[in-house]
Specification:
With 314 residues, this protein is an alpha/beta fold. It has 11 helices and 8 strands. Strand 2, helix 3 and strand 3 form a beta-alpha-beta unit. The longest helix is centred in the middle third of the chain and has 22 residues, at 181-202.
Amino acid sequence: MASFDTVNYSLRPSKAIQRAIVFDGVRAIRDALNISSQVYIGFGSVWFTDFITAHRSLGIDDMVSIEADDIGFRRAEFNAPYACVDVRHGLSSVVLPDLRNDERLGKRPWLVWLDYDSEFTEATASDLRWVVENAPIDSILLTTFNGRDDRYGHPNDRADHLRTLFGGIVPDGLSKRALKGDRMVEMLSQLSLDLMTSIALETSRPGGFLPAFKVAYMDTAAMVTVGGVLGSPENARTALELVSGGEWPCLLPGIVRAPHLTMKEAASMQTLLPRADVMTRQIVQSLGFDLEDHQIQAFQAHYRRYPSFAQVLL
């Protein structure tokens, strides 16, 4: 079953926070490197949430959504939110080279977000390799994939499976503990960034690949989002200075686990933020409701980007 039949990607608070962090970072990179005429390429599904943000927030007017599923393609064509969204039918491994050869799209900087709902696979690695090797200069590459540990085999076989996906960059002597839960998410985040970096080095890509995004999040499953800048040689130093600065917000430790709050709960907590100290459970209880400590800490960390959802009856 296609993921769009089971998940409305616009209604997940942790995903929404991840999306906001990513687009804030992309905007900062575009401004610092003076990138314009960008083309957005991704998997819009039937919801196109990221495409709407790219158009509204970044002003991108050329967007390509890749859809392999036959029914999904027809639904995506119907649901495309703007005239500037071009829905292409086929696998990303076929469509991406076609876009590179397109005279109108192939020579402009790309913002590529390969947002998979599955685990990291050999096909994922192949797509990333192609983009790192072939994307136009000053492109930004992002990928999202499932980081749930049991998607990567039995614990006894997990290290070997990672080596089939990532090759020699996988460390020797990994313990079962290192390949479980949050540690597995961190391992996958680092391995995928290392893979893209190594591909750029192997192929002597001018400007290389600069890791700039690491935002794991969890709504129903742990998802890994990583990416970076495929800058021109002239922009590589500027990008490095931006990303290595102490204020860069897109290389996050841990996993974003946003609590599911009502609008009234979120609004009540926001009235007490920002604050220099930690918001405690007792403080929340004084507002008239209760949350677990980890839920409170997650909200305090990300309240500026916490989404507001409401049902609309037509």
